[in-house]
Amino acid sequence: MLATIDVGKGPAVLLLHGWTGFKEAWGDLPDALAAVGLRSVAVDLPGWGESPAPPRFGHRPADYAAALAPLVERLRPVAVVGHSMGAQPAVLLARDHPERVSRLVTIAPAAIPLDRRTFPRSLADTVVLPVMGPPTAGVVMAGLKRSRRRWVSAYEAAVAHPMRHAADPRWQALAELAWRRFRTVPTAVLTRSLRATALCDLRTPAARVWQPALVLVGDRDRTTGLDAPILARVLPAGRLVRVPDAAHLPHLERPDVALPSLVDFLRPVGSDGAR
Length: 275
Prior knowledge:
Elements: E1 4-7, E2 12-16, H1 29-35, E3 39-43, H2 61-75, E4 78-83, H3 87-96, E5 101-107, H4 123-127, H5 133-146, H6 148-156, H7 162-166, H8 169-184, H9 187-199, H10 203-206, E6 213-218, H11 227-234, E7 238-243, H12 250-253, H13 255-266
Parallel strand pairs: 2-3, 2-4, 4-5, 5-6, 6-7
Antiparallel strand pairs: 1-3
Helix pairs in contact: 2-3, 5-6, 5-9
């Protein structure tokens, strides 16, 4: 059973979190969607947050998409929004269920496989290395679980202006919840999912997504910033929106810019200011 949070009434929007994300991590987006007559359904992916993973679950994009398919069937027609890692099952769901998925949004999508570097510069670089990559990354992740300071540093690296958010109590509460949730995720899940995410190539499945698609990216995203314009070009009905002065969490860093773009794209036809 997948744990979800339901906000609003109307046509459904399914929200898929990224790596180390969780269903409560969408900021003001659920309320903004509810304000225009949409129902947001934020989910914890299997093995994350409050959603247990089935035995021998693979934690690959296709595994997440298969686990979400019954929920998509119940919510149909549904728009699907995926952040970072969550963009991968979102694209697969849109490709495989065009009669159920009405629109697609990817935020800071992880879309292009990482090159295997001889000298890795990040955790994702490390986990894709053959043989010793996953166990080495697992040791690093176990260390992050033991050190809140190291976790906060890693979390701050995902945003453009960490000091700006340090004074925001809502942001600090979100970061604290993220730290607690991160510690509950098994290290094996963190490792397998990150490796699968880093090796996933969305270009081929995205070329077969014919629904309207929005790709949202922060203009200072050093994690997946180069992936977004490539994905937008490959999607037959794709459109790219850059969020200024934001990094890997544009919907949380610059809600004043990101949320109007998201709401306008997802807004039901016939509501005020409709497409």
